[in-house]
Amino acid sequence: MKKFIVSIDQGTTSSRVVLFDTKGNIKFISQYEFKQYFPRNGWVEHNPNEIWSTTLKALKQVIKKAKSLKGNILTIGITNQRETTILWNKKTGKPIYNAIVWQDRRTQEYCKSLKNKNYENTFRKKTGLFIDPYFSATKIKWILDNVKVSKKLLKTNNLLFGTVDTFLIWKLTKGKQHLTEATNASRTMLFNINNNKWDNEILQKLKIPSSILPEVKNSADNFGKTDKRVTGKEIPISAVLGDQQAAAVGQACFEKGSIKSTYGTGAFVIMNTGSKKINSKNKLLTTICYRLNNKTTYALEGSIFIAGAGVQWLRDKIKLINNAYETEKIAKSTKSNNEVYIVPAFSGIGAPYWRPDARGLITGLTRDTDWKTLVRATVESVAYQSYDLFYSMNKDGLKPRIVKIDGGMVANNWFSQFLADVINLKVIRPKVLETTALGAALFAGYQVGEFKSLNQIKNTWKKDKAFKPKINKKLRNHILHGWKQAIKKTLA
User: Fold this and answer.
1) Do the domains at 2-242 and 252-430+462-492 have one common CATH topology?
2) Hey, where are the domains in the chain?
3) What is the distance in angstroms between the CA of the first residue and the CA of the last residue of the chain?
């Protein structure tokens, strides 16, 4: 009988479930988009029941497919949008409010008040993060303060919090398990990455009760089994990782100094820093890359809030394209950006600026600017934002040489080449672009003994294509100067 591993990849715009064989090859994918809710300016929400229903629908299809392929599912790995926050009733399993998405900016003023109390250094030393609406902590606080039923449920000890992984584990196990793991916990702004525990001082400062928090496990660990009423039979859940850390695993970034950059809804650069925590002087985040056998591997991370979401904006809001694939052809058909720059600060701007109050900007428009130029400028903006992150790494004394890239956007050859040109580094694209799903699957396989070592996992990685910088220094400096001016205007 064939052996399979299932990966649940619950993302910002869709729930995807992938069936892998034990060599890391994709056998089947089921995916469903779900609705994005924007109740107010800067607010972004999901319906947790839609997250669950789309995940379950995709999972059932994959289980059915495995059966038709005469295979046995060994285990499930879960990866997820990280900071997105859900609170639910322990008795009923019903969410008390919509999921507040990582992109949401509603706690901007509250974050400002925490900074004014001089909490930033304390939070940074303990969590590796800046005080920002991006992370879960202030989202939890907002729900506790604004959703009346939360007080009632707290009194009876019936309120639970989780990032999306925790919510899915709860649903899959029919409420038997309230768990998360180290990488997701490290994105809440409540988790002390020095001692790997929820931090009591921060919890007290924010008035968040520890009773609502899940138990934190290793990235590869025993997370219980699915309830057979949900999945037809019991299946072990053996790995959980935040999406960016899962992509680092899928890209086999196990050596200190290895780097991956993922281009999905947002874009995220992660550098493995080994057992050492590096505190960036240039506003990058210190975070957990993974935790195995109670041993923590750390990472340095740069976060870009809008990458593929910019392409989605072109498609859904201003209707310049019908689908993402068109962007490659359109960008190729234009000779240059004609000095037009788009800064997609739709949800503030992340590293290295950390300005939640920033808003999007288009600069350089003339009578000659056409819709194709706007499409190209949107795609280009992702490469420019990446440049800012790599520039920060260089300033921190870390000199990347090669970057492994993944995510939906890098299927675009034009973008991948432009990225290499702008960051002036060789970028390598793997054969399996679903590296996020792959990372969760590989760690799940490791936990159940299918892979005996990280080295064995590393051997599953295969190169598709390398992109080397082609443009000259003068042109690179010229286009980057235009970007820096656009950023200056955005932050003014």
Assistant:
1) yes
2) 2-242, 252-430+462-492
3) 62
Q: In the prediction, which pLDDT does 337 show?
A: 87
Q: How far apart are CA 390 and CA 260, in angstroms?
A: 11
Coil, strand, or helix at residue 57? helix
Q: Which residues of the chain have pLDDT under 50?
A: none
From the list 324, 344, 322, the residue with the least C-alpha distance to 407 is 324
Contacts of 131 (CB under 8 A, 6+ apart): 111, 114, 115, 119, 120, 123, 138, 189
- Are 367 and 325 contacting, i.e. CB atoms less than 8 angstroms apart? no
In degrees rounded to 5, what are phi and psi of residue 449? Answer: 90, 5
Which one-letter DSSP state was computed for residue 355? Answer: B
Tokens linked to 64 = 């059915």
Compute the distance between CA of residue 402 and CA of residue 132 in angstroms, rounded to an integer.
Answer: 30
In CATH, the number for domain 252-430+462-492 is: 3.30.420.40
Q: Which residues contact 175 (CB under 8 A, 6 or more apart)?
A: 90, 93
The pairing of strands 259-263 and 402-406 is: parallel
- Can you give the pLDDT at residue 234? 94
pLDDT, position 193? 95
Rounded Cα gap, residues 263 and 193, in angstroms: 26
Which stretches does DSSP call E strand in 275-412? Answer: 285-292, 295-304, 341-343, 361-363, 402-406
CATH says 2-242 is which class?
Answer: alpha beta
Cα 272 to the center of its chain, rounded Å: 16
User: What b/e string do you get for 259-292 counting C-beta neighbours within 10 Å, with b at 16 or more?
Assistant: bbbbbbbbbbbbbbbbeebbebebbbbbbbbbbb
Do the strands 463-467 and 426-430 form a parallel or antiparallel pair, or are they unpaired?
A: antiparallel
pTM score: 0.88
Distance CA 468, CA 221 (A): 39
Across 335-366, b (16+ Cβ under 10 Å) vs e yields: eebbbbbbbbbbbbbbbbbbebebbbbebbee
Q: What are the backbone angles phi and psi of residue 307, rounded to the nearest 5°?
A: -125, -95
